[in-house]
C-alpha cells in the first residue's frame, strides 16, 4: 500500500518545513514562549498567511482541506519545528465549533481566517480528569440571559484572545452526557478571573474562574443540552493533531540524536560506534516507526468508521504516550547531561513530547478507553 502524500499535501508539508527552517528558530520560539502573550503575533500571522488555517478546514468551513491526512500533514510539520502558536485550539477547534453556531458565530470563524479574531476554547475542569462529560460549571437561565458559575483549568493561550468558547452544564448531573451546552463570550466580559502561569513546555497557561457571568442568549452555540457530539468531534480531531505533532517531535529528536552519536567522541572514538548505543538507537527507530504506523492507521479510519476511529485514536494516543516517554528519556541519556541544558535544543523537544501525553488524555486513560471499546 502506498502511504506517500499527494503532490498537493507534499507541497504543503515542504512549504511549512521550509518556513520553519528559515524563519522559525528555536531561540525566537523560546523568547516568544517567555513573553506575556506566550507566543509570537508575527509568527501567528505568518503561518496564517501561508494558508495553513484553510488547509485544516473543510470547504464548508471556509477551507480547502480538512481531511484527516491534512491534519496530520500540518501538525507533523508543526511538531518538527516546536511551533507554539495556538493553531490547534484557535484556528482549528474554534473554527469547527463555530461552524455549528449561528450566522453571527460563523462570521467570527471567518474572522479567524482573515486574522481579525482569535478565540480560545476551554472545556476541561479539575474534576474527573479527561472525562469529556465531567462538567461541573453550572449555567442557570433567566428570561433574557444565562448566568454561569464555575472554573476551567489549564487553558493554553488564553491571554490576549478575542473570545472564550466554553462548555457549561445547563441540566443533569455532573457526569451526564446530556445537559452540556457551548457558549462564546468576549474575553473582557465581567465576572472572569484569570490566573496565568508558565507551562513546562513553553507558553502561557491559564485557569479561569467564572463568577455570576451574565451572558446573552445569542452566546449559545449549537443545541442547548446537546453539545456532547460537538465536543466529541473536536476532541477526536484534537487527539489526532496531538499524535501527529508528537510524531514530528520524535522525528526531530531522532535527527538530533543521530547527529550527536555520529559526531561526539569519547576516549578518542565516535560514540555511535559503541554497540550498546547502536542497540538503543535502533530500538528508538523501531518505536518511532510503530508510532507513525499508529498515527497513519488512525488517520485512515478517521473518516471511514466511527467505531474504528475511536479505537484507533485511543491506540495512537496510547502509543504516542508510551513511545514519547521512551524517546525523551533515551535520547537525553544518550546525550548525557547536556541533553537537558537550556541552550541545547533537545531538552525543549523532550519537554513538549512529554506534555503532549497529558493533552486530551494520557496513555493510561486511552488504554482504558480502548479496553472499554473492545469489550
Task: Walk me through the structure.
- This protein has twelve helices and ten strands.
- The strands form three sheets. It has a four-stranded mixed β-sheet, covered by helices on one side.
- A hairpin with a 5-residue loop joins strand 6 and strand 7 (204-216).
- It has helices spanning 7-23, 26-33, 41-49, 52-56, 68-80, 87-98, 103-113, 228-263, 275-302, 306-335, 345-356, 363-374, and strands at residues 120-122, 138-141, 145-156, 163-169, 180-186, 192-198, 204-216, 220-221, 265-266, 269-270.
- Helix 8 (228-263) runs antiparallel to helix 9, helix 10 packs antiparallel against helix 11 (345-356) and helix 10 (306-335) packs antiparallel against helix 12 (363-374).
- It has 375 residues and is of the alpha+beta class.
**Share in helix:** 40-55%
How much of the sequence lies in strands comes to 15-25%
Q: Uncertain regions: pLDDT < 50 for 5+ in a row? A: none
- CA radius of gyration: 21 Å
Number of helices: 12
Distance from first to last alpha carbon: 30 Å
**Strand ordering within the main sheet:** 1-4-5-8
Instruction: Write down the overall mean pLDDT.
Output: 93
What is the subunit organization of this protein?
single chain
Number of strands: 10
Structural class: alpha+beta
The biggest sheet amounts to: 4 strands, mixed
Shape: globular
Q: Would you list the SSEs in sequence order as H and E? A: HHHHHHHEEEEEEEEHEEHHHH
Amino acid at each position: 500500500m502506498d502511504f506517500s502524500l499527494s503532490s498537493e499535501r507534499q507541497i504543503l508539508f515542504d512549504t511549512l518545513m521550509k518556513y520553519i527552517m528559515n524563519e522559525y528558530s528555536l531561540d525566537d520560539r523560546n523568547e516568544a514562549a517567555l513573553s506575556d502573550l506566550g507566543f509570537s503575533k508575527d509568527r501567528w500571522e505568518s503561518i496564517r498567511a501561508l494558508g495553513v488555517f484553510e488547509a485544516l478546514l473543510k470547504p464548508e468551513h471556509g477551507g480547502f482541506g480538512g481531511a484527516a491526512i491534512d491534519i496530520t500533514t500540518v501538525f507533523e510539520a508543526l511538531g518538527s519545528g516546536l511551533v507554539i502558536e495556538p493553531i490547534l485550539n484557535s484556528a482549528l477547534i474554534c473554527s469547527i465549533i463555530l461552524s455549528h453556531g449561528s450566522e453571527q458565530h460563523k462570521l467570527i470563524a471567518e474572522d479567524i481566517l482573515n486574522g481579525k479574531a482569535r478565540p480560545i476554547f476551554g472545556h476541561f475542569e479539575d474534576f474527573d480528569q479527561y472525562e469529556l462529560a465531567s462538567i461541573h460549571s453550572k449555567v442557570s437561565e433567566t428570561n433574557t440571559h444565562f448566568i454561569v458559575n464555575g472554573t476551567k483549568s489549564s487553558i493554553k493561550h488564553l491571554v490576549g484572545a478575542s473570545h472564550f468558547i466554553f462548555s457549561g452544564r445547563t441540566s443533569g448531573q455532573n457526569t451526564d452526557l446530556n445537559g452540556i451546552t457551548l457558549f462564546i463570550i468576549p474575553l473582557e466580559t465581567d465576572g472572569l478571573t484569570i490566573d496565568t502561569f508558565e507551562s513546562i513546555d513553553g507558553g502561557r497557561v491559564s485557569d479561569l474562574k467564572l463568577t455570576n457571568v451574565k451572558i446573552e442568549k445569542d452566546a449559545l452555540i449549537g443545541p442547548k443540552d446537546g453539545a456532547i457530539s460537538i465536543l466529541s468531534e473536536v476532541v477526536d480531531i484534537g487527539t489526532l493533531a496531538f499524535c501527529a505533532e508528537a510524531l514530528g517531535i520524535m522525528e526531530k529528536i531522532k535527527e538530533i540524536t543521530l547527529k550527536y552519536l555520529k559526531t561526539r567522541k569519547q576516549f578518542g572514538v565516535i560514540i555511535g560506534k559503541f554497540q550498546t548505543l547502536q542497540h538503543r538507537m535502533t530500538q528508538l527507530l523501531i518505536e518511532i516507526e510503530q508510532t507513525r504506523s499508529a498515527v497513519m492507521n488512525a488517520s485512515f479510519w478517521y473518516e471511514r468508521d466511527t467505531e474504528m476511529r475511536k479505537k484507533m485514536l485511543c491506540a495512537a494516543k496510547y502509543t504516542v504516550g508510551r513511545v514519547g516517554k521512551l524517546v525523551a528519556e533515551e535520547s537525553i541519556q544518550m546525550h548525557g547531561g547536556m541533553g537537558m541544558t537550556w541552550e541545547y535544543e533537545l531538552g525543549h523537544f523532550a519537554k513538549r513530547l512529554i506534555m503532549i501525553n497529558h493533552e486530551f488524555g494520557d496513555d493510561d486513560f486511552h488504554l482504558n478507553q480502548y479496553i472499554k471499546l473492545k469489550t
